[in-house]
Amino acid sequence: MLADLRFAFRQLAKSPGFTAVAILTLALGIGTTTTVFSWIERVLLDPLPGVAEVGRVVALETRTPAGDRIDTSYPDFLDYRAQAKSFSHLVVHKERPLTLGAGAGAERVWAEMVSGDFFAALGVRPKLGRFFAPDDRADETGAASVVVLGESLWRRRFAADPTIVGRTIKLNQHDFTVIGIAPAEFLGVFNGLAFDMWVPLGAHAQLLGPSAWLESRGWRALHTLGRLAPGASLASAQTELASITARLAASDRARPSGLGLVAMPVTASKDGAHAELARPLFVLLGAAGLLLLVVCANLSNLLLARASVRQREMSIRQALGANWTRLIRQLLVESLLLSAAGTVGGLLFTSWMSDLLRGFIPDATLPISLVAHVDARVLLLAAALSTVAAVIAGLAPALWAARSDVMQVLRTSGRAAAMTPRTEFFRRALVVAQVAIALVTLAGAALATKSFRAAKRADPGFDPSGVLLAVLKLGGSGYTQPQAAAFLERLQSSLAQLPGVASAALAEDVPLGFGRGSWDEIAVPGYVARPHEDMRIYRNLVSPGYFSLMRIPLLGGREFNAADRAGAPDVAVVSESFARKYFGTVDAVGRSFSIWAGQRTLTVVGVARDIQVEHIGEAPRPYFYVSLQQFLSPSTGIAIHLRIVNPSADPMRSLPDLRAAVHALDPNVPIFEATTLQDYTAAARSVQKIAASLLGVLAAMALALTAVGLYGVLAFSVAQRTPEIGVRLALGAQPSDIAWLVLSRGATLIAVGAGLGLLIAAGAGRGLAAFFYGVRTFEPALLLFTAIPVLGTGLIACWLPARRATRVDPVTALRAE
Q: CA-based, 20 to 30 A from 118: which of 12, 297, 365, 418?
């Protein structure tokens, strides 16, 4: 074997051009496939980095009778934790933005509020210090003011100072003692997010103000995880959860009927990067697989051409006693040596591309982290792909070269020996396959691009252009509810008077970000809910002027005004779909409905046009708005909206004036995450953007490799047929005749490959339509359009050998033969 390796190395070194092209081609194919796999591994196979035995950790969601999946209340969590034996641990967590520090040095950080045995359940060990202990009373209201810092925040904010453990820091203007540092690999348990710190669930009151949410079954906002006990399976755990649900329903008639916990793998839960990215990533993996097939075909063509040139050498070696298995082994060793070098290049490509996915995610308020890494599984995949590519690409040429007729080859010239019908058929078949695959990949990219453009053109129901967004939270500044209301009223008035600002408004949630926001369960007089109908309706808290600033048309009534404040009758503006579903008419002004189990009754004062809240293209659904002043709490996050007078100006230019206006009222209130509404809502199109961008890159690679393969086949054909071309020219053929001879053969290959590719793409398009927004199951015009670059690139690749053929000197060609 060592002799084979040495000989293979010498043979490859003799042809540096061939070797370089082969290695680069393999590196592109293997690198692209392993890059996409590394993203899939990060999102789907390793959703919780740093968690021990992650396969034993499952997500639990509350399932309504209608099949909706919602979060869990704390009392429900306690009930299940007390009775479930299939889990060694059950824990809850909730993401919360907090203010770290005070004054000019304050910054917004993201924390997970967690139950006490959170870290023990996950098998995470501290890098420094300790995690929560029973004495911290993490599950009780009034828990100890302690915090665990993430390793990244520890390094960035505190310069990795180990003495920070035991010291106090300011969180929402309250002192919290740092008790530990989490390891670098642990980011939290919300797939795709990287948290800065972890605080006890029971510290909610200290951080965000008094609340009875830990005692309320109606406050369903907690994410639940469980670690399966030894010997327990997901199926047995689900059976036990169903049994507990039945017992709880029988023992407490006051419990909401039909609600129960359902266990599932983490990557099947409704929240996390997997929920948004699983589909486009699998489409990308399919496209990468097609690209790898193009690479194999290209490499096979290169090796076949090389074997054709070396056919006389192989025949001489056989005549001297080498058997055909020995020759096959030698050629496969050369192929494997090429693939090994290609794997190294592919892994370098993967390490460079691993962070590319994060670059396609728009800026958002959430701490998104989707950096993939080259680990053992990625290395194993690269090695497997390398071996498969080497065998696929090298076996057929090796068999062909080793099993040729020795005497026939030795009797004929080198060129004649290489020009066999079987050789030409196989090489042309590979080119046809390359053209077909390139067209299919290009069609997928075209569908994704059309989907992205359709998402950009879609009307969200409001106008995001020319609006500046910024976030503030008063909960960390010690404000009471009346003080917070007065501060926001003065702030809105001050912001509306800023130079260049047309209007200002405030809201709790911003549409088309990540998530739908908050919801309330409603009851409508006269409306009889269907059995198990979900009456949880999403809503927003907004200030006066919000609808005019967002340019959301009102179909009836009015928007909120200064009189809609605390102490005044509760009012609401409902969406068109809300009015039609629950009141049977858009003319719903004056009608009423209740929230909070009938504790508050709202009178409808306006009906607004439907908007898209979570996803571009979502079906209209009931939605409502309530007055910010009437439902404000100090812990409410506030999104400031400023519409700029000049629509062509950059809204970010007004940010310094906005900060100055806020700090003029209270210098201790920080402003975070300023952006434009247009950039913020780009999050709703991020999936389409990822698919269109990356599929476009893969399609361009496939097209380029196909052109190289087509050029290689025709150039080799011209080189082998040089004597024939010389004879034709000597007998009077014109250069145009020779050019047509070469072009027609190339065009035939392109036409056959394109036709086959169109048929495959038409069939695949029916399945891909389900993955993309705004495309039909059959797009004939789009498919025909995608054939244009394939045909154009192919003809250019054909023209170069054809041009070379017209320059053959008949005398030189005949003398060489």
A: 365
Extract the tokens encoding 528: 């009889």
In sequence order, what are the residues at sequence separation of 6 or more whose Cβ sits closer than 8 angstroms to the Cβ of residue 62?
Answer: 69, 70, 71, 72, 76, 220, 259, 260, 261, 262
Place of tokens 């439907």: 610
- Give the containing element (helix H, strand E) for 59: strand 57-63
pLDDT, tens digit, for every residue of 319-369? 555 555 666 666 677 777 877 887 888 788 777 776 666 666 655 667 777
**Chain centre distance of CA 134:** 39
**What whole-number distance in Å separates Cα of residue 91 and Cα of residue 120?**
10
- Which secondary-structure segment (H or E) carries 812? helix 810-816
Select from 269, 225, 272, 241 the least CA-distant residue to 54: 225
DSSP 772: S
Measure the CA angle with vertex 158, ends 154 and 160; round to 5°: 60
Ramachandran assignment for 69, one of left (phi > 0), alpha (psi -120 to 50 degrees), beta (any other): beta
Per-residue DSSP letter, 44: I
The beta strands (E) that lie in 613-678 are given as: 624-627, 637-644, 672-676
Cα Dmax for the chain = 106
Give me the half-sphere count of Cα atoms (radius 13 Å) on the Cβ side of residue 816: 17
| pLDDT at position 252 | 66
Q: How many CB atoms lie within 10 A of CB 262?
A: 17
Give the C-alpha separation, 133 to 116, whole Å: 7
Contact 628, 507 (CB under 8 A): yes
Placement of tokens 């192919």 in the chain: 794
Q: How would you classify the pairing of strands 69-70 and 57-63?
A: antiparallel
Give the span between the Cα atoms of 814 and 817, in whole angstroms: 5
